[in-house]
Amino acid sequence: MDSTPPSSSSSPFDLVSSALGRYIPRGQAAAPGPAGAPADPAGGPPEQDLPAAGPQEQILGAVNLDRELRVTHRNLEAPVFAGLDAATGSPFVDLLPQGDVPTVTRRLRQVLETGEAHVARVQRLRRADGSELVVSMSILPAAAPQEGLTVSLIAMARRLHLYAAETAIGTSLDIGETAQSLAESLLAWGDVAAIDIDFAVWTGEGVTERAQDRIRLRRAALVPDRAWPEGYVTLGDDLPGEASRLLAQAIRRADTPQSIVVPDRATIERVLGSPRLVRALVPSDRSAGVACVPLVLEGDPPVVLGVAEVWRRADRPFADSELLDLEELVARTSHHVDLARQHQREHTQVLALQRRLLPRSGGGTIQTASVYQPTTPDSAGVGGDWVNSFPLPDGRTALVVGDVVGHGLGAAATMGQLSMEARALLSAGLAPDEVLEHLDETVTLLDDAETGLAAGYSALGSTCCIAVYDPVSHRVALSSAGHLPPILVSPDGRAGPLALHPHPGLGAEFALREPFGVHTFVAPPGSLLALYTDGLVEDPAVPIDEGIGRLADAVASVHPWDPLQQAARRVVSEVMPARQRDDVTLLLARMIGYRKEDTATWRLPARDDAAVRARALVSALLRQWRTRDGTRDSVLLLVSELVTNAVRHAGGPITVRLIRDGPGLLCEVGDTGNGRPRLGRAGLLDDGGRGLHVVHRLTTRWGVRWTETGKVVWAEVVR
C-alpha cells in the first residue's frame, strides 16, 4: 500500500481506508491478475458468485486525486484490483476506456466545483494487460482543508452487479433516464450499449400486439458518451424503417420474443445487407459481435417494448452464461420502462391540458405573454399551475392565474374544471370576488368524499387570483384567494407588489371563511401587471419577500419597447430558483386601453326624456365618426330601447357609453337596478317585453355585467 496522508477523521480517503482494514488481512499478498487467472468473460474479475461478502471477498478500494485529477494516494491492495496501474502522479483517466474519458472527467470536475458527491456509477477500468474490471465508482469531495477528490471503487461481482443495476434503474419515471440507466448497466458486458424503444412507448401511448409487426424504434439511450461516426443512429434519432423491421423480426422467432447473438462482423453485414444500415447500426469498425435482448412486457401475449443491444470487440465473444445475465437484467427492468411509459402518458396529457389553458392573445387593448415551465419529468406529474387571459364580451379583459394543490391527473382535472368555470362565470358578467365564491364552493364539493369525486385527491388550499381590466376607465378590479400578490409596474418605472388583504385558499374551513374582497386600482396605459405562482419566487435559501422583491426588480427592468414574450422568458430565467422545486408560471400584461377619441360616456337622469337626449348625443357622435347610415339607425334604435328599459325598470342616474373597437361598436347602458333582463316569449298583443327582442335582432351579441352600484347592459353592433 502506498503511504497514506496524515490521519484526519474527516478525510473520505481515510474513512474508506479504515474500512479496507476490516476486509484486507495485513500482510496478504495480492492475487495474480487476470493474466494468471481465468478471466471473467465480460472482462471483469474471475467469476466469484459468493453468497455473502466476507474477509475473502475483497472488493473495496480507494484512490485520492488532486485538483488536476492526478493520483496522490491509493489503496488498491485487494486481489481483484491487481493489474490496475494507478501510480502516484499518473492521471486517473488513464485507468478508463478511451470512450469513457469525457463523461467521467466531466463528473469528476462537477464534484470538484459543486462539492456534491456522485454515488454508485457503474464503470469499467482498464488493466495493464488490456482486460477490464467492472466497478461501482463513487466520487467524494475531499474534506476541508484538503482539496481534491476521493474515488471509492467496489468491484462488481455478478450478483452484486445485477442487484445494483436494478436498484439504479428503478429510481426514475422518465423514459430517457430509465433507458440510460439500463444502458450504463449493460455496458459492463460490452463496449457499447444502446436501448431502442418503440415510438409508441416513447410517447406514452398504449402498445398492442397488433402494432408489433409495424414497430418503429427510436434510440432512447447510448453509452458511452463519445463522437460517433457519421450516419450512426445516436440519441433521439429514429432507426431507419428497414432496420426497425429487421430487429423486430429477429427478436420474434416463432412469434415469441427471444434474444439473439450475431457473433461476427461478416454475419452482421450479411444480415443488414446494406452499407447504409451498417453505418446506422454498427458503432465502429472494431465492433464485431452484438447481443440483442428484447424488453418484454409480460402478458398474454407478451408485448415488446424495445430492444437492448450490447456490442463487443472480436476478441471478446459472448458466452452463454453472459447472455443469461443480460436477459435477467433486462427482464428485471422491463417493467420500469413500462412504468415510465405510463408516467409519460399521464405527463403528456396533463401538459397538453396545461398548454391549452395558456393565453392565446390579449386583444387590441392589452398585450399579454405567459411562460409555463414544469418541474422535471422525474416529478409525480406536472403540477397544478394554470394561467389564462381572455377578452370578455363587453370589451374588458380577464387575467387569471391559479395553483391547484398536488400533481398528476387529479390536479389536472381540478385545474381544468376551475379554469373553465372561472372563464364561464367571468364571461357571464360576474365580478372577480363572486367568481372566487363559486370556485370556493366547487373545491369544497370536489373534496366531499360522499360525492365520489375526490378519489383520494384533495384540492383544499388551492389558490387563485383574478384581475379584470377595463380599457376605457383603465381600472383593474382584482380578487385573490390565498395567492401571492401581483406586481404592478407604473409607466414611470415604480414597481412593487399590490397591498392585498390576505385571504385563505379555496375550500378553507367554514370558521376561516370571510367574504372575498375586491382591490380596485388604476393602471394607466403603459402599466405592466405580473401575475405568477409561488414556484417562481419560493426558494428555501431566501425569504419569500426577497423572492417577490427580486421579481419586482426584474419586471421593472422590462422596457416598453421590449417584445413581451421575450421579456417574460428573460424575467423567468433571472428570477427562477437555481433548483426548481415546483412548476413556474408567469403572466405579464401590458395595459394599452382605448384611445380617448374612440370612446364617449354620458350621464343622464332617469327621466322620461332620457331616451330622446341619449339619441341626440349618440347621433352627433356617430356623424363625427362617419358611421354608415344603416349602422347609425341601428345604434340609435338600440340606445333608445336600452335607455327606455333602464328608466322603466331601474332608478337613479343612467350611464351611456359608446366604444369604437375595430369593425364593431360597443354600446353600454348602466343603471342602479339589480334585476336581470331576460329575453322572454311575448304575445301578439303584449306591449311589454319587446325591447330585448329588438336588441337581440340588431346586435351580434349582448349581455349583462354587474357592478357595485347596479348593472350594465352591453350590446355589440357591426359598423
Mean pLDDT: 78
> Which regions are unreliable across 5 or more consecutive residues at pLDDT < 50?
1-10, 21-56, 377-381, 450-455, 683-687
The shape is elongated
Query: How large a portion of the residues is in β-strands, by DSSP E?
Result: 25-35%
Computed Rg:
35 Å
Strand ordering within the main sheet? 2-1-5-4-3
Describe what you observe in this structure:
There is one protein chain. The protein is α+β, with helices and mostly antiparallel strands. Helix content is 31%, strand content 25%. The protein has a five-stranded antiparallel β-sheet with strand order 2-1-5-4-3, sandwiched between helices. It has a five-stranded antiparallel β-sheet with strand order 7-6-12-11-10, with helices on both faces. A five-stranded antiparallel β-sheet has the order 13-22-21-18-19, covered by helices on one side. A hairpin with a 2-residue loop joins strand 8 (252-253) and strand 9 (256-257). Helix 3 (158-169) packs antiparallel against helix 4 (175-186) and helix 4 (175-186) runs antiparallel to helix 9. The longest helix is centred in the middle third of the chain and has 38 residues, at 320-357. The protein is elongated. The termini are far apart. Residues 1-10, 21-56, 377-381, 450-455 and 683-687 have low confidence and may be disordered.
